[in-house]
Amino acid sequence: MVVLDTEGNTDCEYSMGSEVTGKKKYILVMSDRTSDRKMNQALSEAVHAAETANRAKSTFLSNMSHDIRTPMNAIIGFTTLAVSNIDDKKKVRDYLGKILSASNHLLSLINDILDMSRIESGKIQLEEMEVSLSDVLHDLKTIVSGQIHAKQLELYMDAMDVTNENVYCDKTRLNQVLLNLLSNAIKFTPAGGTVSVRLRQYPGTKKGSELYEIRVKDNGIGMSQEFVQKIFSPFERERTSTVSRTQGTGLGMAITKNIVDMMGGTIEVQTEQGKGTEFIVRLPFRIQPEQHHTEKIAELEGLKALVVDDDFNTCDSVTKMLVKVGMRSEWTLSGKEAVLRARQSVELGDAFHAYIIDWRLPDMNGIEVTRQIRSLGDDTPIIILTAYDWSDIEVEARAAGVTAFCAKPLFMSDIRETLMTAIGQKQADVEDTIFPAAGLDFRGKSLLLVEDNELNSEIAVEILNEYGFLVDTAENGAEAVEKVKNSKLGNYDLVLMDVQMPVVNGYEATKQIRALNAPSLAGITILAMTANAFDEDRKKALECGMDGFLSKPIVIEELINTLQNNLK
Fold it and tell me: Is 338 within a domain?
């Protein structure tokens, strides 16, 4: 006899024996199926999870096929148009800009796939170094400025209570987290919207470290609560008519979450459909003592400044910084009040020595405040403080009497630099060039570039020539070995070696060079150049005798810095 539970499942079984020698005998057998049911339920859930994951990956592959082909189609199409209109400089410039944009988008897709692969296999390792948070945020602002202008958005950046702007962390991964979050905000914010990034420092829980909170907020389309539950899962993208045209791998948030976890931090999201989204990241960083940035400046000590900003927190933060460099500071939330105080200070014989004025004041913008202060005959340095791009108003502002501009987020290093420049103690160096570190001169230095791809070789030679290098080339590892073997001491100062090449690859070529009889030739500096960007590739390059590693596509600044360090 089988006994069922209330859900119709077998609960236990009874077995009855037969009559023997005139007496009835009964045998009762009981079987507990609870563990079986739990096991079956767990298996069923595991199968469902696996099927869901497989469907997500299938959708991901389908999306990737489309998303990769889209920028590739743009690259091929605009290249064809550029060739067809080669004599029309304006059109060619426009086409090249679009090709560059599509190429960068394609590269970001590929990087996402590689990063997720490395995360899942546990191959990502953090590389801690000293990092300037000021540089990180200002660079981030520069990187996304094109996207901001293209979508007619406003980008607001600010830093509050950051007394330690130099920290120890993995700069590449921090940049990746911030760029993922900011790009996401830009992507899902319609034209005319606003995106903001706010950094704040809090006391840490461990000695020698502080907690940094980064808030990335937009007033875009927001997300459904259903999607929020799985936003940090790989391969997920929200399916709505609003976002269906938006490209991406669906990996960005999963990568971001994994990196934040690896850094010992937390990430949370607050969102409402139709109103926007805010990501809040909190990261603990070891700090660098700010001895240089917090010491008083003799030339500024005792001088008086007026801070004008409609945001109390900004006034308070800037005032604290000014006091730290030795200045006296007053502040006001109103442009009209600023003009009144300027007039009174002149009349009382206690004039201000610097004005720091926000560009976008509600009652009177910074340029108009400047005009009215100048009309008083006051030639005190005036610094316009802004979280926005000032390029469109720079000519008007200079004509009104503005001395200098300072971009938010404002750090101690920024305020020191701007004040010293504005008050005339230091001249700022301005370079009109697209090449980073263009002041470096490597004339007299000779390189051997080993690259089998003709286009890559041509690009590298042109860049290196810009910095004064003499460049010889080889198409494969075998040719490179022969050129080094037959060279004289001083012919080549360094070898840039591609890894994947026909005939003899870069690893084997390096081993053969290291085995040459002449020590002066065998010991030549060799740097790997490869599109294989995994840690094991870096390790393999060093094990075969290479001295350094550069990932493709080559970043000019990284290339020049690496060459400079290896040619000392």
Answer: yes
